[in-house]
Structure formats: C-alpha cells, structure tokens
Give the backbone structure.
Amino acid sequence: MSIPVSPVPPSLQVDHLTVAYNGLPALNDVSFNIPHGARVAVVGPNGAGKSTLFKTLVGLLSPRAGQVILHGQSLPHHKECVAYVPQREQVDWNFPVTVYDVVMMGRYGHLGWLRRPRAVDHAIVTRSLEQMQITDLARVPIGELSGGQQQRVFLARALAQEPHILLMDEPFTGVDATTQQTVLSLLEQLREQGVTVLVSTHDLNLATTRFDLVLLLNRRVIAFGNAAHVFTPEHITHAFGARALLLNGTGTLVLDECCPPEER
Amino acid sequence: MDFWVAPLAYEFMQRGLLASLMVGVLCAVVGCYVVLRSMAFLGDALAHAIMPGVAIAYLLKGDVLIGALVAAILVALGIGLLSRQGTLKEDTAIGILFAGALALGVMLISTTQTYAVDLTHILFGNVLAVSVDDLWLTAGLSLVVLTTIVLLYKEFLVISFDPVLAATLRLPTELLRNVLLILLALTIVVSLQTVGVGLVAAMLVTPGATAYLLTRRLPMMMLIAASIGAFSSVAGLYASFYINVASGAAVVLIATAIFLVAFLFAPKYGVLWQARRTRKEVEQTQ
C-alpha cells in the first residue's frame, strides 16, 4: 500500500509492522495510515491480532520489525497521547477503589512522581465522569458496578488521559444497550474534538454504519478503507474463512462466532 | 486501671509495647498490598529465607537485625530476578529459595551450644528482649517504609490494580515491584523480634484481610488494618504478661480472632450478611 500524498501528515502511520506474541507471529507485515480524527473499526476473527495491534500501538509489546509513527515521529515519542481501553476482564474488579479513584488514574501520566492531583485534574475527572454519565457513581466501589458501568468507567479513565488517539478493545461486547449508546455518542463527540479512535469489534453492522474506515485484519491487513470497499464477499471469506456464510443473492452475511476460541 | 499500668513498671515491658505497636501498624499497612497483590506466600517465604542472615549475625555476635536486613534485601531481589526470567513459575522459585535458605539457617544455628533457645527466639520472637537500640532501628525503618508507601501511593496503587495501565503510563513497573519487595523485606526484619519469622506472615496478612471485609477503599483499608494490628499487638502483650504465654503467639491469635468475627459478621462482605442477602433474593424471585 503506497502512502498517499497529503498536505496534512497522517496522525497514525503503521509501517510494515510484524509482532510476535509468546513466540508466535501475531501480526505480519501490517501497514496502514489513519488520517487525523478518523474513526476506525478494527474487524477480524478471534486471534486475528486485534489486541496485539492495540498493545503494540500503546507500547506494551515491541514490534519484531517495522514501526509505528505518530505525528511524524516513531513510537517512543508521543506515547503519552495514546490511551488504551482494555477488555474489562483485565483487572480485578474487587480491588478496593472507587469509580473516582479509577478515573483519576488516567491523570497519573500527567502528574509525575510524588505529585498529588491538582484542581485541574479533579476538574478533568469530573468532566470525564459527566461525559460517560456516571457522575452519580463516583463514590461507589468498583465491585458494585454492572458490566456496562465497568466499561464506562474504563472509557472515562481513557478520556481523563486526554489522548489524541484512543484505542478501545471490544467495547460493545457484553454490555447493555445504554452503554452501547453511550459509547456510540462518545464516538461522535470525539470526532468533534479531533480524536482519532480505533475500535475492535465483532459487530459488522456497527462497523459499517458508525465508522469512517474499516481495517479488516487476520494477522495481515486483508482490506482497509471505507466499509463498502472492505466488506466484499472475497475479503470476508479471506478473513473469516469457513466461519463466514454468505447468503447468495441477498448479500447478507452471517458469521459463526457463537463458540469462539479463547482469544490469546 | 492498675491492670493496664502495672506491667509498665517494668522497662522491658515499655520497650516491648512500643516495639509491638510499631510492628503491628507497619505490618498491617504493608500487609494491605500483600493481600491485594496475593503475595502472602512470598511474605512467608521471605521471612524464613532471612534465617541464614540472622544466624550468621548471631554467630559473629553482630547485630541480628542488620544481618536479617542484608539477607532480606538479597532474597527479595533474588526472588524478583528468578521469577522474572520466566524459566520457573514464581511460586516454585519462592518455594525452592525459601526451603534452601531455611535449611541453611537451621544448620548454622545448630552449631551453637544454646541451639534450642536461639532457634525459638528467631522463629517466634522475643519481644521482652528488645533493647533501646533495637527500638530506634525499628522506629527508623518503620518511618522509611511508611513514608515510601505514602509518597508512592498512586504508583503502587496503579501497578497493583492495573499493570497494563501502569505500563502505558510509562511507569517503571519492574522497579516499583522491586521497591515493594524491599519494603516487604524491611517490614519482615522489623517484625523479627516481636513475632519472629514463624508468625510474621500472619501479622502481614490477617489485619489486611480483615480490613478488606470491612471497606472497599484502600486508604480506609490501611487505616483499619493498622488499628487492628496495633490493638492485637498491645492486647497480645498484656495477655502474655498476665497469663504467661508466648507473646508472639498471643498477638497472632488475637488478630485471628478479630478476623473470624469480621468474616462472620462484617456488613456486606461477611458470611452471615451474604447468606441473608441470598435468602432475600430467593424470596423476592419466588
């Protein structure tokens, strides 16, 4: 894929990226450019390397080859402007902290050693809570939250980081309708603020209707562009293999993901 | 009134009480991280693994606390190193290091004439033999550990709750983990004289676990744990004075009794409360 000539440099450029996870190649020669402020759905079967891609973008995994370029500089620069919303299972929800404490952790990167939160940090946390509509839960221990509320706490924490690039890992999986709606309206707000958003999802319908670009991934980039360009029968079959069932004539697509293997 | 004052007529009791109080509070606060990070086995192993340091200091007639301090820091860093390589699972590495060091300690002590008495003191502490110098060392180390925990509060919080976030925030997670291990080692050394290596794990884990049944905020958890640690230390020492039992064991048993009460009766997280809530839910669904 050639780099398009553009007056504005792409905010996120991934260049021939190869990443191994537990010794096995999880991403192979992945390249794409995402313009500033775009909303990108990252779609692919389980084990396609969606989480690996996000973890590499945020600096948790080191690429074996290739590089990630943010705002024209390679990854060790500008890392602080990337926020990552992990899958909810990643933390112990019985940890003795409140919603407010968790969202405040998003400010720690801006605070530095030995510093206590300043008035501006409290203001940003309050605003992030309002944005995710969980202000009334601020003092609640996180162990008492529902799955959707947990997701919104993680999103509020990412907002408090004031990122330029926001990565969300499966925010629509296992959440209630309210939370799904909150996430979707958040995507609109973030576009107005010029934040680039990458969201991994299994929901091809949402990917088509709510995102500017779709990245179809299965260890390699199968297709990248707008939904109409990406979701062709060939691409889908290529990415999902036998699990994709195309109903001929109607153009309807069914994915057999009812018993997905464990994501590594 | 006389009941509380009478023991204080003895200077060794005054020193013992002061030392117990400091150790009770220190163990409980550090213990909150031990509980939350599932480091109970590590804490216990660390305590036993400092035996050789104690034994060597004992044989050379040096300061036992200094010997323990050196051994504890070496072992803490050793465990960090072994488990980092990924060749061994962490609890296997701990198990090997712990048993080997304990055997070395026992072997060294077995060369002395007063083997049994010395071993008992190291294993179970001898709070009534605390000297003024020991008190100063205990106070100094306690201050260092507690100050570090206050200063690095948000860093320790985030590496314990969400190591992934800690890494994306560019915190040196490996370094912070080792600092926490060293703080744990220092705490264990300070506890040597009051509860001994055999029982220090209880003082680390029990007050923190009790507090976890009573609150879901970390600062409050530390405060409650510290109160429980302080109370059981003092009460245990009085019990040992009046009914003439081993002080370390008395302290630990009182802490355990408080835990059992909380385990049964704690609001929200206690066994009885949860049973009642389940019954209510069943009734509502019917």
Summary: DSSP finds 15 helices and no strands in chain B. Residues 71 and 116 of chain B are 22 Å apart (CA to CA).
